Amino acid sequence: MSKQIIHTDAAPAAVGPYSQAVAAGAGKTVYLSGQIGLEPATGELVSENFEGQVRQSFANMQAVIEAAGGTLESIVKLTLFLTDLSKFASANAIMADIIPQPFPARSTIGVSSLPKGAQFEVEAIIVI
Questions:
Q1: CA-to-CA distance for 95 and 124, rounded, in angstroms?
Q2: In a structure prediction context, what are the per-residue pLDDT tens digits for the chain, which is 128 residues long?
Q3: In b/e form, how buried is each residue of 63-76, taking b as 16+ CB within 10 angstroms?
Q4: For residues 53 and 82, what is the distance between their CA atoms, to the nearest angstrom?
Q5: Global pTM?
Q6: What would the 3-class secondary structure string for the chain be?
Q7: Helices 50-67 and 88-98 meet at what angle, rounded to 10?
Q8: Coiled coil where (predicted)?
Q9: 33: number of Cβ within 10 Å
Q10: How far does Cα 122 stand from its chain's mean position?
């Protein structure tokens, strides 16, 4: 799968580990459901710690991507949901550690609550 990163100086530059837009070549598009920081074996949150939940959410997302036949490089769009937008910088730093460059397009949304009391959720669109 080839990705073309779209950038223009006529719009604000990305303020984190993401691209303004991504065009993906021909392939199969897969829309992933949101993942929260649940331990796969127990179905319980990995911890009350925000960073732990973010890392587990990304690990769960990666497992689904791999089950679909993709890799983290297949991601063209991410959506992050945070119950506390003051933790945006922490989520950015973790994402930058996990997601390879060039970064996918991304939106971040502040929400009042998430299932099971989670503090973070991530969903993705991949092309493989």
A1: 13
A2: 677 888 888 877 877 888 887 777 778 888 899 999 999 999 999 999 999 999 999 999 999 999 998 999 999 999 999 999 999 999 999 999 999 999 999 999 999 999 999 999 999 999 98
A3: eebeeeebebbbbb
A4: 11
A5: 0.88
A6: CCEEEECCCCCCCCCCCCECEEEECCCCEEECCCEECECCCCCCECCCCHHHHHHHHHHHHHHHHHHCCCCHHHEEEEEEEECCHHHHHHHHHHHHHHCCCCCCEEEEEECCCCHHHCCEEEEEEEEC
A7: 40
A8: none
A9: 9
A10: 5
Give the residue among 81, 87, 79 at the shortest CA–CA distance from 111.
81
Structure tokens at 121: 């959720």
C-alpha 16: how far from chain center = 12
Which tokens hold the place of 102? 């060039």
Phi, psi of 69 (to 5 degrees): 95, 15
Superfamily for 3-7+26-127?
RutC-like (3.30.1330.40)
